[in-house]
Amino acid sequence: MLDRIGEIAELFTWLGLLMGVLVLLVALVVRLLEGHWLTADADTAEIDGDLQLTWIADDGEVYRRFLEPDERETVGAASRVTVHYRKGRPLRAHLDKRTHASRVLLLLGTILTGVGVIALVVQLVVVVGQG
């Protein structure tokens, strides 16, 4: 029985650690490709039932965009929020500093690496238990 648990733990160790590190490397590349994010304070205004953000970017221009429904829930009743945008692309402002893709990859890589580490501990306990 312990042999079977040890084999399964070894499989999860290899898969978890290898895939976890690989996904974390991909997350790092995605974050590097995202570039440097700038921040600006944006005012919110309700226009025809939609919520609009207005902010001044580092180039001195005024930019506006309407919020998506899920962003509207995040902002709530706040009259001023912080927006994040990439240099040269101020129209693509986000309420979060990182994109969903980089956050998902980081979370997935962390979970897979954690599974690999836990499986490694189980494998070591099985080896010690077999004595």
Automatic annotation (TrEMBL):
Residue ranges crossing the lipid bilayer per the database entry: 12-33, 104-128
Keyword annotations from UniProtKB, A to Z: Membrane, Transmembrane, Transmembrane helix
Protein name stated in the entry: DUF3592 domain-containing protein
Species of origin: Labedella gwakjiensis
Lineage of the organism: Bacteria, Bacillati, Actinomycetota, Actinomycetes, Micrococcales
